[in-house]
Write a structure and sequence with these properties.
This protein is mostly helical. It has one domain. The protein is 66% helix and 0% strand. This is Protein involved in non-classical protein export pathway. Keywords: Membrane, Transmembrane, Transmembrane helix. One of its GO terms (biological process) is protein secretion.
């Protein structure tokens, strides 16, 4: 008989929490390193979102 893994916040909130913590830690890393313009996480996500948005409008 196996026991279920304990959850910190809940079955669905734990992965969401992990993604948020990872994104925030990478964002703080970028602030320390001073990434070049056009290569920050914000700009890369914005470019990806714009591409998806443009692709939907073309259909």
């Amino acid at each position: 008989m196996t026991t279920s893994a304990p959850y910190l916040l809940g079955r669905f909130l734990d992965p969401l929490f992990a993604i948020c913590v990872g994104a925030m830690s990478y964002y703080s890393y970028e602030q320390k390193v001073q990434r070049p313009a056009g290569h920050t996480l914000d700009e890369l996500i914005r470019k990806k979102y714009d591409r998806l948005k443009n692709k939907k409008t073309e259909l």
